Amino acid sequence: MTREYSFIDSDEALKQWIDDHADLTAIAVDTEFMRFRTYFSKLCLIQMATLDEAICIDPLAITDFKPLLDLFVNPNIVKVFHSAGQDLEAIYNTFALIPAPIFDTQIAETVLGADHLLSYQDTIEMRLNVLLEKAETRTDWEKRPLSKSQIEYAYDDVTYLYDVYLLLRDQIETAEEKRMFKEKTDALYMVDKYAPNPEMAWMKVKGRKMLRGKRLQLLKLLAKKREEIAIKRDMPKRWVVGDGALIDIAKEFSQPSMKSLVIFFEKSYMAPEFQPVIDEFISQQ
Predict the structure, then answer these.
(1) Where are the transmembrane segments (predicted)?
(2) pLDDT tens readout for residues 94-153
(3) CATH of 198-284, one of 3.40.449.10, 1.10.150.80, 1.10.510.10, 1.20.950.20
(4) Which of 153, 155, 160, 194 is catalytic?
(5) What's this model's pTM, rounded to 2 decimal places?
(6) Is residue 239 classed exposed, middle or buried when 0-12, 13-18 and 19+ CB atoms within 10 A define those classes?
């Protein structure tokens, strides 16, 4: 299928494109983002496709996103994603909204009987007999200008997605399939999935299952503090202190210790941030 391709990097072009497509009923959406140097995903590219067009929107060049956000929440336009979770997280953390309604092709495949979560590449190969390149999976999407291969990769992520949507949308037929699809899709709209939750940060610490009692209690407090610091400074948690160090600190300081807290940190200036947490924990024992 032949499509027209456009790269949109101005407010005027974005508004014009969306105004020209006010009668859409569905649009495929994908994003590219970076998270290596930050806590929050940095949205670097938004790709969208219709039956006969595909566009790349440069969010690093756009200043007025209102037309796009209006499209995202337009109840008459289905937003098609594949494995939407990370895309929705990037969109939510950038714009504080979740697109709706959503059709997730990975969910559709699961409901239709896939025995595992199919990747986008596997879905396209199985449904369209097209083998996609993976060369740009770990590329630097923040760097400008984007290369030709980056842009081609980005277009592939939505053009074939729309085509798969056309194949799957009418295959969910039975009442049970519709119930399952709705249940799984409704979970995508839960803001708690995308908003930071320092209270539950300990659940993502590798090695936590080896701790019990006071050690686990302290780990929960340390993980919460690490999350709060990472959020405040918008930096990766591992740059504050690694999981292994958190486990070691919880083991050592769940009771009074003569060791220096600093030795557990690659970045020694982070240690004083955690000392009050440990002091208060020990004082309450």
Answers:
(1) none
(2) 999 999 999 999 999 999 998 899 999 999 999 999 998 776 567 899 999 999 999 999
(3) 1.10.150.80
(4) 153
(5) 0.88
(6) middle
